[in-house]
Every structure is written in C-alpha cells, then in structure tokens.
Design a protein that fits this description.
The complex is a heterodimer. Chain A is mostly helical. Chain A contains 14 helices and two strands; from the N terminus they run αββααααααααααααα. Chain B starts with a helix and ends with a helix. Classes of the chains: A mainly alpha, B mainly alpha.
Chain lengths: 292, 289
C-alpha cells in the first residue's frame, strides 16, 4: 500500500520531465526520422520520398565541402585544444604565488558570450588594422589577411577556439588534483624526475578525463556554428568556413529543404556516435580507471 | 652542497613557471582589454597605426551612442530594449529550470517507482542527441502551436526539465542522508514537505549551479533567438549585437566594441561574485558526476 503511494508520488514528481521528454525529445526524434525520408518545407504536408534525401547528399558538392571543412577544423582544433588545455592545467597545478589570478585569467575568456567573442575576433583578426597583425608587425612578420584568405580563415577560428579553452582546463585541473600525492612520492623515491612523473603517473591517472574531454571536443567541434556564422557570412572566403551545421541550418531555414536538413542531422548524429565509440574503443586499453 | 643545488633548481623552475603563466594570462586578457580600449576611442584612434593602447581621451559617450543606435529610425533605444528582453528571458528560464529540475531530480534520487532506472538511463542517453537532429521537428511543433516570433519556444521548454540538470541535482540529492526523510515521514511529513523543507534547503549549492548554468546558457544563446525571433523589437542582446554588426559591415568598431563590452560585462561581474559556483558547475560536468 505504502509502496503504491510512493510510486504515484514518484511519477507525479517526475511528470514535468515525462511530458518534456515526450514533447521535446521523443516526438521530435521520431518526427525527425520520418521527415528525413520526406520532401518537406514546413508550409506544405511532408511527402514521402524514401531515401532520396540521403542519396542526394552523395551528389551534393556543397554538402561534401561543408563536411570536409568541418573535418579539417575538428581534426586540428581538437588535438591542439587538448594539448594546450592539458599543458595549461599542468602549469596551473604547480604551487606558485598568484595562482588565483592566473586561474581566473585563463578561465575568464571562456565566459565571453559567443556573439561578443565573434565581434572581438573580427576586430582582432582584421587584415589591415587588427591587433594580431599589428603585433606581428612588431616582430617583423607581415600577418596574413585572416578574414579574407582561404588558407587562414580556419586557423583564425582555431585560435579563437583556443582562447575559450578555460572550461576544459578547469576540468583537467580538477582531475589533476585528484591524483594521490602518494603516487608522486613513491615515484620520487624510485628516482623519477618531473617529466617521468608527468608521463608515467599524471597522464595515466587523468586518462579518463582526457577521454571525457576528447568526446566533448568531438561533439562541440563537429557542431561549430555561431562563430563562423557571425564572423564569416555565408562561409566566406570561398566557402572555406562553411561548416556542416551552417549548411544544415541554411537548408532548414533559408532554402526550406527541411527533410534534407533532418537527413543531414541524422548523418551528423551517426558521425558523432561512430567517433565517440571509436575513441572509447581505441582507448580501452590505455584509459586507466584508478580509484574510480 | 647537493641540497643547495636542488634548492636553486627549484627556484629557477618556479621563476620559469611564473614567467610562463604571466605571459599566458596576458595573452588571455589581451582581447578583453583591447575590446575595452577600443570601446573608449574616437573613430580616428581605432584606425591609427601603431595601435593606441590607452585612449587619450576616453569617449564614455560611445556607450550611450551604442545604446541609442538606430533609436531615431526605430523610435526607441534598441540596446536597452534588448537588455530588458534578455533579462526577462533569463528570469523565466532560470526559475523554470531550477524548479522543474529540482522536482524531477527528487523523484529520480529519492522516490521509488517502477521503471525509474530505465527512465533515468533514457534521460542520460538523450544527452547524446545533437541539437541539429531535433531542430526541424521542434521548429515545426512550435509553428503548429503558433509560437514562432514569440519568446515561448525559448523559455517554456525549460519548465519541463533538462537531462543534464536532472543528472546533476540527482547526484547531489542522493548525498543527503536518507535517515532525514525517514524521520520526517515518521513525524507525518508529506513527500512535498520533505522535498521543500528538508532536501531543498540542504541543496543550495547545487541549485545555485543549475541557476548559473541556465542563466549563462540563456544569456549566451544565439541559435535559439536566431531561429525563433523575427521582429527587431523582440531581439535579445546576442541577436541584437549580431544584427548591429551586419548592418554596420564592420566600420564602427568603437561602437561595436562598446556594445560587446556591455554584453560581456554582466557575465564577468557575476563570475567575480560567484566564482565558486562556476568552478563547481564545470567540475560537476566533468568527472565528479
């Protein structure tokens, strides 16, 4: 009797989410599968076309270009981002004075709202008057036209992503602080130097955190949208910054090819899913779950 | 002798780290400082080479100019309006997500009902779904409800819980001793009273994290307003800033930077007052969960 009452109370408490889950997740998911098989423009009823949308992607040059752009961006931004954030976390984990200031300074940029970030980015990377090129001039380098050169537009975005790495750094830092001091002490007794300790104690001990941040990095980088959308209208120059989600967005809301947009969404989902599984599999032997 | 050299080595090592950290911190703060500096310059100074680091005569009125930009043609001050719109949305989403996620998480953490664990696993699994997959059907749904062009698509969903916040609060609620609930039950407390008068007051730090995260998400959101808002008068700060930029085509850098500064400043101020919760929020996201 009492159990029964608890069950009803439990369902009652969970009811907002049960409704929310159904309306904002389960239904749209199912609808998205169906719409990906349809010709759909929101204005008219969807017309079933089978796998046509998926077949169309194979021959859609812009689709491939956006996919390749995204792959290049992610392939550079993720490893560079991880390397930089681990290094920064290691630096921030040392015991020197003024640490509170350093931590705040490195974390602060990650708080900057995307649109402001994009504005500052456009101003900093401006080819003629941008601060980046002016600073390069001090050391005798003529900076490239970041915003207008096909070869430099993606690097500009990657540098901007690096600036917002503070979140990842804090997660790594928390991981580093969980490494038991005793491990370092016994390593010292065995004659290990700082580099040995980092390589054989620190990195294995934080490997679950590296894996977590790698997966988060994959999910984030493959969905990059707002920064390039604002900084490089229509993926200029020459569509070099036209990324997957931008093309998906344009298909949905500019060309109202909403069925095609759904199909693209599912392809993205499977790419993310496959890469996540791959990174879990690849690191199975290397990730070390110490005390977890 | 050996000890002395070790001590010296340590000292050198410490100095190297200090120098590295100082250089990195400067690099991190430079764009923000440059934004602030540009926002106080007259146009002529923004063009000057080599760059002017500190404006000779700070132009505080740039902020007012950015605020009242377009006010003649539209007949109102858009940035004040955008700020008001954004604050209203933030209040709605923050209260919605704190209330709904706390209630739902309580059910997952401290009440037993059939199917609960399956439902919780499903909840976690939904975090894997990227937004672009849902974008079109959710838009179609709101269109059928005639909500496009209103704020409803941007705040009503937050009153129905979100997987990550449920997860975060559930983990926290489970750390509160169950004996407290048992004792209260023996005294004849209803489940709602246990929730609102025992569990919630003990969970303030976790609730603060949820409030903070949903505030930041709403304040920063660009894609949501871009999809759902069409009338310029309804824009949020993010969307307003972007449309401002696209209209000016990047000439009025001093005004753009003033506007950007106004969008960034509240978040940074908040950081200095609630630093602890920011860090907790991130580490919850990471491994602690």
């Amino acid at each position: 009797m009492k159990r029964r009452k608890e069950a009803w109370t439990g369902l009652l408490f969970a009811s907002p989410w049960i409704v929310g889950f159904g309306v904002f997740l389960a239904y749209p998911l199912a609808a998205s599968i169906y719409l990906s098989l349809c010709d759909y423009s929101v204005l008219r009823k969807p017309v079933f076309v089978g796998l046509h949308n998926y077949a169309e992607m194979l021959h859609d040059d812009v689709f491939w270009q956006s996919l390749v752009n995204t792959a290049i961006y992610a392939g550079l931004a993720i490893p560079v981002g991880l390397a930089v954030s681990i290094s920064l976390a290691l630096l921030l984990n040392t015991k020197v004075r003024g640490m509170r200031f350093y931590r705040a300074a490195i974390y602060l940029p990650s708080l900057v709202p995307t649109v402001s970030l994009a504005m500052v980015g456009m101003w900093m990377f401006n080819g003629e008057r941008g601060l980046v090129n002016q600073l390069l001039k001090y050391v005798g380098i003529t900076g490239p036209n970041w915003m207008g050169d096909v070869a430099w537009s993606k690097p500009a975005l990657i540098l901007m992503a690096l600036w917002g790495v503070g979140n990842t750094v804090v997660i790594f830092l928390a991981g580093l602080q969980d490494v038991p001091v005793s491990l370092y002490e016994s390593a010292s007794l065995d004659g290990a130097n700082a580099w040995h300790k980092t390589k054989f104690v620190t990195l294995p001990m934080i490997s679950p955190v590296i894996q977590f941040n790698l997966i988060m990095g994959i999910i984030g980088a493959l969905q990059i949208f707002a920064e390039p959308y604002i900084m490089f209208p229509n993926g200029a120059p020459a569509r070099s910054t036209y990324f997957y989600t931008m093309y998906l967005f344009d298909n949905a809301f500019r060309y109202t090819k909403m069925g095609y947009a759904c199909a693209m969404g599912w392809v993205l989902f499977f790419i993310i899913f496959a890469l996540t599984m791959l990174s879990l599999k690849a690191s199975e032997k290397r990730v070390h779950y110490g005390g977890m | 002798m050996a000890l002395e050299s070790i001590a010296r080595q340590k000292k050198v090592f410490g100095i190297v780290i200090h120098v590295a950290l100082m250089a990195i911190s400067l690099l991190c703060l430079l764009p923000l400082l440059w934004m602030l500096s540009t926002s106080l310059k007259p146009v002529s100074e923004t063009m000057r080479q080599p760059p002017v680091w500190i404006p000779e005569h700070p132009q505080w009125h740039n902020y007012w100019d950015a605020f009242s930009y377009n006010s003649k043609t539209l007949g109102y001050l858009p940035f004040l309006l955008y700020a008001r719109n954004t604050v209203v949305l933030c209040v709605l989403t923050v209260s919605g997500s704190v209330i709904s996620n706390a209630i739902v998480a309580y059910s997952f953490a401290r009440l037993r009902w059939p199917g609960r664990n399956v439902a919780f696993a499903l909840t976690l699994a939904t975090m894997m779904v990227p937004f672009p997959v849902l974008m079109v059907p959710v838009f179609a749904l709101f269109r059928n409800l005639d909500w496009i062009g209103t704020y409803r698509p941007l705040w009503i969903p937050s009153w129905f819980g979100a997987a990550f916040n449920i997860f975060l609060l559930r983990q926290f609620f489970r750390t509160i001793p169950f004996e407290l609930s048992e004792a209260a039950k023996i005294d004849g407390c209803s489940e709602w009273r246990i929730f609102s008068q025992i569990v919630l007051p003990l969970s303030k730090p976790a609730l603060a994290v949820v409030a903070l995260l949903s505030f930041l998400a709403t304040w920063k959101d660009f894609l949501g307003p871009l999809i759902y808002l069409f009338d310029q008068k309804t824009y949020t700060l993010s969307l307003g800033l972007q449309s401002y930029q696209s209209q000016e085509a990047g000439t009025q850098w001093h005004l753009l930077m003033a506007a950007s500064t106004m969008v960034v400043a509240p978040v940074i101020l908040l950081f200095f007052f609630a630093q602890r919760y920011f860090i907790q929020g991130i580490t919850f996201t990471g491994i602690k969960g």
